[in-house]
Amino acid sequence: MLPTQVEAGGLYPYNAAARSLGVWAGHSGRTDELLINATPSRQRRPQSIARPPVLSRLLLFWLLLFIAAGGIWLFEIRLGLSVLWGIAVSALPGACFAWYSFRRLGGARQSGAAVQAIYRAETIKFLLTAALFAAVFMQVKEIHLAAFFIAFAGAHLGASLVTARTLARHQG
């Protein structure tokens, strides 16, 4: 340590210079509060990225959609089942994507792994969606196509909006 730093009572040269001036913008005259926030911290722990509650909010959204489809089913069975199938074809791959991509966020050092997990999750979602579409068209004999596609598109768009809103609130 240099003698001027010891005399000024600080370990860093900019603390010694600031204390020798005696007046700082907003300084009340106490030397112990000078540049306390400007001194570098020696013991910083790596921050981990908190997991956003995307999956739980999506599950709640899809539960509400399934309840609404059940209400439609009570009045017209074919229409209600078509809406249920449309929501299911959107919800199951979306739930797999949300679970797989957001389960292991570990911090900035693992950002490459997080991006790779998102790519894998999107591939799984795409393949599962295609398989569910094929299964519905091959196995379900009486389906109302307009209701099926409107339910699928609505559930998919709604899930995208819920996800975007959840992530925006989580960041800010």
Automatic annotation (TrEMBL):
<dbReference type="GO" id="GO:0005886">
    <property type="term" value="C:plasma membrane"/>
</dbReference>
<feature type="transmembrane region" description="Helical">
    <location>
        <begin position="81"/>
        <end position="102"/>
    </location>
</feature>
<feature type="transmembrane region" description="Helical">
    <location>
        <begin position="54"/>
        <end position="75"/>
    </location>
</feature>
<keyword id="KW-1003">Cell membrane</keyword>
<feature type="transmembrane region" description="Helical">
    <location>
        <begin position="146"/>
        <end position="168"/>
    </location>
</feature>
<protein>
    <submittedName>
        <fullName>F0F1-type ATP synthase assembly protein I</fullName>
    </submittedName>
</protein>
<dbReference type="Pfam" id="PF03899">
    <property type="entry name" value="ATP-synt_I"/>
</dbReference>
<dbReference type="InterPro" id="IPR005598">
    <property type="entry name" value="ATP_synth_I"/>
</dbReference>
<keyword id="KW-0472">Membrane</keyword>
<keyword id="KW-0812">Transmembrane</keyword>
<feature type="transmembrane region" description="Helical">
    <location>
        <begin position="123"/>
        <end position="140"/>
    </location>
</feature>
<keyword id="KW-1133">Transmembrane helix</keyword>
